[in-house]
Amino acid sequence: MKFVIKRLLQLIPILFAITFLSFAMMRIAGSDVVEQKMLNTGQVVSEAQLNAAKAQLGLDKPFLVQYGIWLTKLLHGDMGESYVSGKNVFDTFIEKLPATLFLTVVSIFLTVIISIPLGVVAAINQNKFLDYFIRFFSFLGNSMPNFFVSLLLMYVLGIKLKLFPIISKDASLSTVAMPAITLAIAMSAKYLRQVRATVLDELSKDYIIGAKARGVRFSATLWFSVMRASLVTIITLLALSIGSLLGGTAIVESIFMWDGVGKLAVDAINMRDYPIIQAYVMWMAIIYISVNLVTDLSYRLLDPRIRLEER
Questions:
Q1: Among residues 98, 104, 97, 94, which one has the least CA distance to residue 244?
Q2: Is the dihedral of CA 43, 40, 95, 53 positive or negative?
């Protein structure tokens, strides 16, 4: 419990720093929601009307005053209202969250069933044809950006084979397939190489040689010793993936019109909808902090060496 409290106290200043920097960077952008609306609609208004619209949204106040008002409301549980839709920011975020959670779960599942088995197979067959074959495709998958993979899957699976709908109209297994596969390809290509390196490192240790000399089956050593020792690295990789996916993969969500928090953030950035953007930044910060905290706790449970070092 002391460890958890200590970690939480260390993370509070980080949260405040993130909110301040994000708030400042949005103001440096050089335009606001009122000017963006005029640009998108082609409206021409007088300077007085422009100033009145900014005053109504509180954009006429100095930067520090705006930040202080927003932070005070946030500490009282009020994220404000969207400048564009006028809806409550928290309610809007909660409305979009289930779609992102669904995409995250499916993507992580595909990543696990692809990267861990292939990483182990590549390590066992080090410098053999199968190892080179797997590493070639992992390099290929890691080299292709998400938007290219998205367009490729749309063309092959959506247009040519007609297996999945191109545009996501709802959250279902058929509509989530292509965005989840897109994310899983990129993550699996990166993580299977990490799994391979971790397993190879364990296979080179003395206890593997000792187990082989005692006649212990290699499969038993692999699954009960090597994989257990590799869990810390694997959990770290998965935790980072969960953090980025829960934050919303904006490009993929926008391409497939997946109605999650990533697409919400992109739309808000285009319209300079500051309350939505700030809520998204807060969500990302909280997610990464929470994931890092859970990962640290997992280390203590899985690796006795960490507990011994702390003592």
A1: 104
A2: negative
Supply 297's token pair: 């706790």
Say if residues 275 and 82 touch (Cβ distance below 8 Å).
yes
244-291 pLDDT, tens digit per residue, is 676 657 788 888 888 888 888 888 887 778 888 888 888 888 877 777
d(CA 249, CA 100): 9
The number of C-alpha atoms within 13 Å of 86 and in the hemisphere containing its C-beta is: 1
Cβ neighbour number for residue 124 with a 10 Å cutoff: 17
Measured in residues, the chain has a length of 311
Among the listed residues 310, 270, 264, 300, the one whose alpha carbon sits nearest the alpha carbon of residue 283: 264
Give SS3 for 61. Answer: coil
CATH homologous superfamily for 90-310? MetI-like (1.10.3720.10)
Q: Please report the pLDDT score of residue 134 as a whole number.
A: 92
Strand, helix or coil at 88? Answer: strand
Low-confidence ranges of the chain (pLDDT < 70): 1, 3, 29-46, 243-244, 246-248, 299-311
Scored b (16 or more CB within 10 A) or e, 211-245 reads beeeeeeeeebbeebbbebbebbbebbbbbbbbbb
Residues of the chain with CATH 1.10.3720.10: 90-310
Distances (CA, A) of 295 to 124, 227, 300: 27, 17, 9
Query: Distance from first CA to last CA of the chain, Å, rounded?
Result: 15
DSSP letter at 85 equals T
